[in-house]
Amino acid sequence: MRQCQFWARELTHLGHDVKLISPRYVKPFVKRQKYDAADAEAIVEAAQRPEMRFVDPKTEDQQARAMLYRVRERLVCQRTELVNALRSYLYEFGHAFPQGIAHLKRIETLVDDPNSKLPELVCNECRDLLIQISEISERIDIKTRRIQDLAAETDTARRLQTMPGVGPITALAVEAFAPCMTSFKRGRDFAAWLGLVPRQHSSGGKERLGRVSKAGQADIRKLLIMGAMSRLNWLGRKAIPDGVWLAKLMERKPKMLVAIALANKMARAIWAMLTRNEDYREPACAVAA
Q: What angle do CA 71, 261, 245 make, to 5 degrees?
């Protein structure tokens, strides 16, 4: 599947009608043992199903933006790993620091303090880790500025950023990973594609709903939940009018559950904005109009 997008574009240029199928939808059609002939037969059989779901081929621009996003995410993970390693080493010598990159200044002050009672070798190694963290942070800032520049170039990214909780990184992720919104019949289908709908355990006519399925695009789902959480903090709550569904939900439900519900609503709004070519409108203003 690594080169499927490339070959899809190449075959499209030759005049073929290319349809991509997720491997998980082909697996049930593989008979007994797995080998190339059985895989090819399963693909043909799956493609002939009238209800089969296909994957839209990505453009080179989409793949390039996805690569930029993934490279930045990898750098963030590497920085987090180094920060946690630095904290764990200092913890072995009796110095505990909270999680988060915001506390690096305190660590630097401790390492540079001649009265810290840390061995000189430990201080030297900690300084080396701090240098590595600083270099990765600079590279993350460069990638972030590049994402912001790309998000300002397209009308789609600009439109997405009119929604509260959606920034340049989320807008770029939607452009890079999401298929064309016209491939979804309604906003709920897009939310289901992101894994933001309850998992079904229904049987015998009795509806049983579980936790969110998480069976979809993880990058966009994570960013939408993070954006929803930013709207539920002490500063974001000031912009929530009294009496709206979000304010009522926050009064009786846990914060994380409210964030997931809001992320689901944001996903549906994104579908509506992109299919109608409209900027974000607050629900209260839409009702008043």
A: 135
